[in-house]
Amino acid sequence: MLSLSPTTTPKPSGLFYFTVPSTIPLHPKTLKTPTKRTHRPFSGTPRTLLQYNRKPQLSGETPRVVVITSGKGGVGKTTTTANVGLSLARLGFSVVAIDADVGLRNLDLLLGLENRVNYTVIEVLNGDCRLDQALVRDKRWSNFELLCISKPRSKLPIGFGGKALVWLVDALKARQEGSPDFILIDCPAGIDAGFITAITPANEAVLVTTPDITSLRDADRVTGLLECDGIRDIKMIVNRVRTDMIKGEDMMSVLDVQEMLGLALLGVIPEDSEVIRSTNRGYPLVLNKPPTLAGLAFEQAAWRLVEQDSMKAVMVEEEPKKRGFFSFFGRSLGK
Ligand code: ADP
Ligand code: MG
Fold first, then answer.
1. Strands (E), the chain
2. Ligand 2 centroid vs 280 CA: distance in angstroms?
3. Closest atom of ligand 1 relative to the 269 alpha carbon
């Protein structure tokens, strides 16, 4: 049985090995010592050395303006923005997360900041408040700020488009306290005006997809639109992966997804009920102690984003059960 096992996270209680295709260290605060590997080592060429006590090296020009998009709704864009954003803040980078999902905003809920959003970008543009007043600073990580475009249930005002968002990004760059390292834009679903607005200021994209054909078709369409818009740096996160279903051939493997979309892989996030729990609590998963499997996967994706690194989808064999004499014999003869 072939499957993908792509993270450095502790081995789950499933039937599969989790190999280490990339050498992303785990966050020193969440895991101080490397987990003992009981699987076959990854044979690829690692780009970075395994170092547990280092900070990731910020690659590329700052601010890195990254749009988190998917095409299809409900695949995990907002979850990714919240968790990758807070992971980046924990790694010491200054982050502004913009909720560009006008009318259906929910990034504030996921972050537990809904009661602190008094002003939005619309009020800033109308001259009713300053940009600083619209930025909501997270109390847990003060280098993380949230910016909402508009009030919930409101419509995108006529005239608000990509240019307004470009102005906003420029205003963030010109702030007195300095430009942020990362500007993450949580994109709305679909490919209409809201999508075009959200991608306009971005120079890189994180495409979130789940391993199902509807999500993949939308992701493929979005990839084409991003490329048309001049965004060439597109990496994907495959979310809600279930190894048990891959094993039963009820779900596409991440390798299949990668082959279909042909994009660099930033991370693979397992299906995890903790994600839903943390969404409802307004407490992003990456802050959980002890860390969960999905939380660690988001952290590693953030690390790769910083270093503009990617991981490899690999096929691994099913973990051999305790072999008896005959099974060993049978295996040898079978070769
Ligand atoms: P989008 O922003 O793309 O519409 P969301 O981030 O709001 O999607 O996620 C949609 C739902 O899926 C949320 O209820 C969220 O808790 C759930 N979800 C996202 N990722 C996972 C995961 N890895 N495991 C379990 N549930 C998830
Ligand atoms: Mg969303």
1. 2-4, 64-69, 95-99, 136-137, 144-148, 182-186, 204-209, 233-241, 264-270, 315-317
2. 14
3. 23
Is residue 215 a contact partner of residue 69, using CB atoms and an 8 Å limit?
no
Atom 14 (ligand 1) nearest CA: 276
Q: Whose CA is nearest to atom 20 of ligand 1?
A: 76
Three-class DSSP category at 269: strand
HSE on the CB side for 182, CA within 13 Å? 36
Q: How far is the CA of 16 from the centre of ligand 2 (A)?
A: 31
pLDDT per position as a tens digit, 265-314: 999 999 999 999 999 999 999 999 888 999 999 999 999 999 999 998 76
- Minimum-distance ligand 1 atom for the alpha carbon of 186: 2
Going by their DSSP bridges, the two strands 64-69 and 204-209 should be labelled as: parallel
Nearest-CA residue for atom 10 of ligand 1: 74
- Residue 148: is its pLDDT beyond 90? yes
Q: Which residues contact 42 (CB under 8 A, 6 or more apart)?
A: 19, 20, 21, 312, 314
Q: What are phi and psi of 134, to 5 degrees?
A: -85, -15
From ligand 2's centre to the CA of 25, what distance in Å?
Answer: 28
